[in-house]
């Protein structure tokens, strides 16, 4: 196998930042995901809703993780995005005080924007009158505001864009960012996704659509990607942000890439507003686009970080595509068994986890996967414990309402000795 970008070209992932139910920070998230310990729990804020289980981000303090004089002016989805971006920028050894802001772009994604702000202010409008509605309502809930606020903080004067392809949004943002780099529109892109949709309205809407797990009596066992007893996803919140730059530029800064983005693909089912096309025709097409960009064949794929929501239809369709395209059986995992479904952030969070898998040679397990059924059999789903595996090419799949499909292909960055080494993971964890 030959990756055409591995010899100095292509797009480098030089920094990673995460805020998830598994932890605030990339290392804390990675350890929890590798442990396979679910984060779903009873959520008191959802009392009275048809489903009261969620995956919340705990330990997040806007004053500490975002800072500034009034971080609460921003919706929670923006706070998550800023915190994850700061971590990713530090990880990439970049300093916004010294970079050329005209050459820095921001591409962030969200499926819903500041929906909690919207719900809160709408309640005020209906119950206490228009005079109680905050003048910051629109700057807080507009979906583009995470990108806008981050650009303000970073002094980034390149394109600041928002992508919205439902649950594929975070991956779509990374694809958009790669395109900006490939055509020379910027030199650095801060890209990813953030969502905070664990609200009564969103939970009720998903529950009414039959998309959520109804295991309220067993929250930890509710999210069951690919398992025979799966019955829906668990709604979650969080953010994932990557710093992307041309590999030659990262090398010139003497920063070793965590991984290389060597291919990507996107397509649309054009089939149904919420259900995937049953034969997976266009998810397969997006995967083939990503492989073509990587100069690789299906047999070259070692690992797939699946969309893996734990719904009957998604897992059946995705498993069928994986079986058909990859008869050699790459390892497959879904982080949603631990994190729940973070919506527009999922594609970026899972891209970051795929990057860490490629870099560290560790595939996290799929929590709550105990046995397949006829729909998910013959797929090598990693269960029980993390698997140590050399990964030369990995895919991260994302799919969204509206029929959106986005696939990212990652390969290792420079091997040890090719550039400055990063700190090794703790010997006490993956």
UniProtKB/TrEMBL annotation:
Record's keyword terms, sorted: Acyltransferase, Transferase
EC number: 2.3.1.-
Domain of life according to the entry: Bacteria
Keyword presence, Protease: no
GO-annotated molecular function: acyltransferase activity
Top enzyme category: transferase
Stored SMART domains: PKS_KS
Source organism of this protein record: Streptomyces millisiae
Coiled-coil features, chain-numbered ranges: none
Full protein name: Beta-ketoacyl-[acyl-carrier-protein] synthase family protein
Family that this chain belongs to: Belongs to the thiolase-like superfamily. Beta-ketoacyl-ACP synthases family.
UniProt-listed CDD domains: KAS_I_II
InterPro entries in alphabetical order: Beta-ketoacyl_synthase, Ketoacyl_synth_AS, Ketoacyl_synth_C, Ketoacyl_synth_N, PKS_Beta-ketoAc_synthase_dom, Thiolase-like
Phylogenetic lineage: Bacteria, Bacillati, Actinomycetota, Actinomycetes, Kitasatosporales
Signal sequence interval, chain numbering: none
Record-linked Pfam families: ketoacyl-synt (PF00109), Ketoacyl-synt_C (PF02801)
UniProt key word Transferase: yes
All copies of domain Ketosynthase family 3 (KS3), residue ranges: 8-412
